[in-house]
Amino acid sequence: MTTMPGAVSGDRALPLRERKKLRTRRALADTALRLFLDRGFHETTLDELVEEVEVSKRTFFRMFQSKEDVAMAAELELWDAYVAEVAARELHGPVLDFLKQALVAAVTGLGEEWDRSFLATRGLIARTPVLWDRSLLHSVTVQSRLVAELETKLGVDSRQDVRVRLLGELSLAAWRCAVKNWISGRGYDGPSPMEKLGRWKGPGGSKVLIHRVEEAFDAVPDSLTLAAP
Amino acid sequence: MTTMPGAVSGDRALPLRERKKLRTRRALADTALRLFLDRGFHETTLDELVEEVEVSKRTFFRMFQSKEDVAMAAELELWDAYVAEVAARELHGPVLDFLKQALVAAVTGLGEEWDRSFLATRGLIARTPVLWDRSLLHSVTVQSRLVAELETKLGVDSRQDVRVRLLGELSLAAWRCAVKNWISGRGYDGPSPMEKLGRWKGPGGSKVLIHRVEEAFDAVPDSLTLAAP
DNA sequence: TGTAATCTGCCACTGAGGGGCAGTTTAAGT
DNA sequence: ACTTAAACTGCCCCTCAGTGGCAGATTACA
Prior knowledge:
The structure is a homodimer of 229-residue chains. By secondary structure, chain A is an all-alpha fold. Chain A is built from nine helices and two strands. Chain A has two domains: 17-65, Homeodomain-like (Arc Repressor Mutant, subunit A, Orthogonal Bundle), CATH 1.10.10.60; 72-221, Orthogonal Bundle (Tetracycline Repressor, domain 2). Helices cover 70% and strands 2% of the residues of chain A. Chain A is globular and about 55 Å long. The termini of chain A are far apart. Chains A, B: Keywords: DNA-binding, Transcription, Transcription regulation.
């Protein structure tokens, strides 16, 4: 959002070659999402995509690891932000709280533009099993990155201490629950009271998402005690 | 091949067509594992596999959804057994305990022959990233099957109650931790005291695996309280 | 300005996975 | 036992994701 026509919100200090790279990456992600939403994921071939963006297929695969990944660029952004946030913050107090706050901060930090394309992405994922699987996989994979950070911060070895790894898993489990509830589109608490205000049609923005995240994290302790008569 | 040398432990009561199906399925899984361990996953093509088993590639894809799946037949067996176990048992008391016991029962029920091929499978998975991803994905996917069972048993709606879904996730998270520790091959408690007895070389059998599972489940409550100073 | 490193485009190739059709085996009816 | 309907298998052909190689362009650097 500087005044340039095709300017990306990229740090102007970058080696220029990197900026170009980022620009095409951005272009690929955007048009990919547009095409996939329009014609469907399987109905769109990579050749059509790279045709539209005017890049070679070879270049595409230098930017993204797979056809699935380019559809979920927004989600990948989030994971990078999350891990970075965990790495940057200093850790004191309950680790689960720490993980919650870091995730909330990551979502907040990505801004307004992000949550629109993330919502679109989730819509696409919801009706494309292959993407659903990939998304799931990514979320599970972040766990190991998280654990690596936590290990250095806590000074424990995760191979000795199961708890650290479990916390990583828990954090992502909470995230998945949060997103599910977000998409299902209920209002703030309980089934859709807020929708009447017309402020949130559908899932709502990242404000609501953040609320869902906190909700899910806070529900973790309770779930352990859940019992049948 | 009617009076079959390689008779499977198949229920003789099955519709006969099903038995044939099971036999080729079994043959595919076994030789696939053998070939993959021998030459490597990517180095073995499907054409070579179906050549060896003497089936058409078309038939292969009627048995397994992908090349990855045939390598992890043992794991898929476990997940079916787990879900079946959860469905069969009646639920009372703490749900997390219930899930633990059902998983233990599932592993136990699969028997001696299974844990050998499962161990081999895990070895293959460990050195094949693609398979690692798939395995991870399967474990996460089981969660939704689990939750579906729990919902009917508890009579709650998982869309209202986050706790049920979290329990599903927790149970699989514990499983993944358990397997990691099992593979890492330490002895019963702490770093390898039992190995000196020569009773468990490497990870050890399903006895040890079960111990690891219980260990991981029991560590869940503790992990929540984990805190940094 | 020259030069070395890096990136891109193009081309050809492998291999997974699926669709269609014809032939065969099994289950069910009489 | 014989026939009919349904399900299964084999075979050939196709699409398309993803890779490696090489030549040409671009950028960083001296």
